């Protein structure tokens, strides 16, 4: 699958899933803007990717929940590469509490990063995609939690369900401009985001960390295995390289069978 001559903006790509998508896209010939709150980590990731000698990579400072920062970051990426063909809205965090104890400020922070961030980056990129008239692809990083619920994750589950609604609207509005919108829904992937949750959930649920992994995170999978960053990146490559509007408004679950529909 070839992304030669294309340019992508990937949010939250200084770490975890986003970083691997950036690597896989660059290896397919794509220029990648690594847009992240952590600019120094974004620059480091960009240097590692550029050193591979395929697509170019740059680090871009961006808080996806800040309207001005998103507009400025998207403009910087477009100035560097001459356009944007692919947006991967991936930046995310996790905060867990039972609903009745969830601090409102933390609820709002979760919704701002996951949903406002997806909207703001979509709006900024769509304008350029429409003007350039060369089509495009938008990918939202959902989760099995776009389809299912887990205790303690109210804003995460609400936001990840919301991304499916956003993708469906964008798929309808943008089709005339040959811009597609889809959601990837991974199961648990061992990244810093998940590594942080394991001891937190063990404390909250009063069980061991290995029980969190075995009996909470991977309990419903077909084989007791974590999904990998590369599993997710390969699906992101497939969606980005797909040639027509036949594949739009969809959500693709990559979860070792945790969720089947
Ligand atoms: P990660 O913690 O490894 O990486 C997240 C990145 O997002 C970090 O580089 C961080 O600096 C950046 N970020 C955080 N807030 C930001 C903001 N406001 N603006 C810009 N960047 C910001 O996490 P990950 O596991 O790779 O998660 C990436 C995405 O995948 C998230 O949306 C997450 O919900 C989703 N996801 C993860 C898993 C999993 O098991 N790891 C499963 C399903 C979905």
Can you describe this structure in just a few lines?
The protein has 8 helices and 7 strands; from the N terminus they run βαβαβαβαβαβαααβ.
What brief labels describe this structure?
single chain, 261 residues, alpha/beta, Rossmann fold, 2 domains, 8 helices, globular, binds nicotinamide-adenine-dinucleotide
What does this structure look like?
Strands 3-2-1-4-5-6-7 form a 7-stranded parallel sheet, with helices on both faces. It is globular and about 55 Å long. It is 48% helix and 15% strand. It has 2 domains: 7-186 and 228-245, NAD(P)-binding Rossmann-like Domain (Rossmann fold, 3-Layer(aba) Sandwich), CATH 3.40.50; 188-226, no CATH class. α1 (16-27) links the parallel β1 (7-11) and β2 (31-36). The protein is α/β, with parallel strands linked by helices. The protein is built from 8 helices and 7 strands. It has helices at 16-27, 39-51, 67-81, 104-132, 154-174, 192-205, 209-217, 229-241, and strands spanning 7-11, 31-36, 57-61, 86-89, 136-141, 179-186, 251-254. Nicotinamide-adenine-dinucleotide is lined by residues 11-12, 14-18, 36-38, 62-65, 90-93, 113, 141, 143, 186, 188-189, 191-194. The site of nicotinamide-adenine-dinucleotide has 28 residues, from α1 and α6.
């Amino acid at each position: 699958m070839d992304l030669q001559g294309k340019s992508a903006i990937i949010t939250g790509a200084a770490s975890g899933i986003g970083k691997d998508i950036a690597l896989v896209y660059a290896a397919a010939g794509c220029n990648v803007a690594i847009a992240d709150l952590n600019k120094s980590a974004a620059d480091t990731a960009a240097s590692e990717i550029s050193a591979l000698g395929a697509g170019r990579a740059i680090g871009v400072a961006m808080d996806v929940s800040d309207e001005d920062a998103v507009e400025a970051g998207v403009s910087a990426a477009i100035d560097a590469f001459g356009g944007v063909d692919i947006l991967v809205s991936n930046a995310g965090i996790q905060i867990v509490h039972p609903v009745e104890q969830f601090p409102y400020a933390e609820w709002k922070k979760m919704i701002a990063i996951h949903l406002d961030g997806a909207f703001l980056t979509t709006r900024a990129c769509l304008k350029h995609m429409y003007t350039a008239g060369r089509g495009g692809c938008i990918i939202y990083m959902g989760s099995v939690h776009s389809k299912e619920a887990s205790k303690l994750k109210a804003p995460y589950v609400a936001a990840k369900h919301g991304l499916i609604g956003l993708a469906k609207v964008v798929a309808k509005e943008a089709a005339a401009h040959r811009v597609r919108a889809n959601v990837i829904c991974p199961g648990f992937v061992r990244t810093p985001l998940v590594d942080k949750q394991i001891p937190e959930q063990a404390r909250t649920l009063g069980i061991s960390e290995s029980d969190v992994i075995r009996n909470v995170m991977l309990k419903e999978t077909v084989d007791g295995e974590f999904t990998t960053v590369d599993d997710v990146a390969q699906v992101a490559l497939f969606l980005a390289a797909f040639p027509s509007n036949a594949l739009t408004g969809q959500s693709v679950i990559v979860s070792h069978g945790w969720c089947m529909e």
